[in-house]
Amino acid sequence: MVMRKALLGLLCLLFLVPVAARADVVPPQPAPIHAVIAFAENFNAGSVEGLDSVLSKDPGFEWRDGDAPPRDRASFLEGSGKAFAEGRGLRMEFVGEPSIQILEPGRAVAVAQVSRFSRGEDGQEKPDDQGVLILSLKLEADGLWRITSFGWAAQ
Question: Which of 7, 120, 145, 153 gets the most CB atoms within 10 Å of its CB?
Answer without folding.
Answer: 145
